[in-house]
Design brief:
The chain is an alpha+beta fold and 147 residues long. It has one domain: Alpha-Beta Plaits, CATH 3.30.70.100. 37% of the residues lie in helices and 28% in strands. The protein contains five helices and six strands; from the N terminus they run βαββαββαααβ. The chain has a six-stranded mixed beta sheet, sandwiched between helices. The longest helix is centred in the first third of the chain and has 18 residues. The chain is globular and about 40 Å long.
Length: 147
């Protein structure tokens, strides 16, 4: 089965824990409904999100995100078809911005939009390999999950 892999970058209009928790809860609900999986890197200066799933539904999800007033400067970075999912069974995984990723200075000058597609996709492959992402269920910004 062919899936669409879409990666976009945006800036959060507010980095408050309550707003980010609301964004994550919405993503989890809509993605589970639409058979979309993926991951979100959330920093004060950057949202970097990968969506994967049925092409029409991923495109519709991205259209909703582009209209969402909680995001600014939404930029499509990668859009390609693939035969597999990197985050199967996970409606949304979330990770803080890893220290090996772009600096705030690089983000400020638009580096994510200038990066080559393989480099952008490699960010999510590395998250998957290193197990840095956390399932959204039970995750809240501003506090640690209980284990």
């Amino acid at each position: 089965m062919s899936h669409l892999r879409l990666i976009y970058a945006s800036r959060p209009v507010d980095h408050s824990p309550s707003l980010q928790n609301d964004i994550l809860a919405t993503a989890q609900r809509c993605n589970a409904r639409d058979d979309i999986t993926g991951a979100l890197i959330a920093r004060e200066d950057l949202f970097l999100q990968q969506l994967e799933g049925p092409p029409l539904l991923v495109d519709q999800a991205y259209a909703r995100i582009r209209q969402d007033p909680r995001h600014e400067g939404v930029r499509l970075l990668v859009r390609r078809h693939t035969g597999w999912r990197l985050f199967p069974g996970c409606s949304m995984r979330v990770a803080p911005g890893p220290d090996w990723m772009w600096t705030p200075e690089q983000v400020a000058v638009g580096f994510p939009a200038k990066a080559p597609r393989p480099e952008i996709e490699a960010v999510f492959v590395r998250l998957w390999r290193e197990g840095l992402s956390t399932p959204i269920r039970g995750f809240r910004f501003g506090r640690r999950m209980r284990t």
